[in-house]
């Protein structure tokens, strides 16, 4: 048994998924306002009376940006035990992006006064977790900008699929990856039209690198060539 890459190396490749590093906020979860959101709901639309930092208890959250003509870009996604909403909380400017529930989600919202006057003064370790959350987001955005500038689309597709495979796998047999996104959502994440993405997926399939794409599973048929695309320009 051997891992594709170590956890540290995997983090270096992150360009869409924010690692969960803020689970320590669970110890103050009773001070937050518990809210449930169905898939597709916007988080900020129900909070207009104050500035909040959010903690994701269950589900998945996406940061997205849409254009006037309806095109959408998924900037990053997070899973449970993660913080979000830090930027508008600190700069106090209206957010131009949408924070959307990628799946049915349970969120805890912490109001500004509670965070600044109660939580952080009493729990300085949560300040470190907050800094780490912001640092991860900066890293993701930098890596994403570099990938969009330097990598071709097949490489970006393979990098995303590689990020979804975090467990050890055997040396023989095909590797199975669970993307978690349909083709339209993956196209939004990678900043391309769905038709363009589909064409590139078909080319990878014809080349024998990937099996047919679905949100539930994709077979990696040629690992050496797959890894060449993953680590292109690294």
From TrEMBL:
It comes from the Bacteria. One of its GO terms (molecular function) is DNA binding. One of its GO terms (cellular component) is cytosol. Keywords: DNA-binding, Transcription, Transcription regulation. Residues 37-113 form the Cyclic nucleotide-binding domain. Residues 151-224 form the HTH crp-type domain. This is cAMP-binding domain of CRP or a regulatory subunit of cAMP-dependent protein kinases.
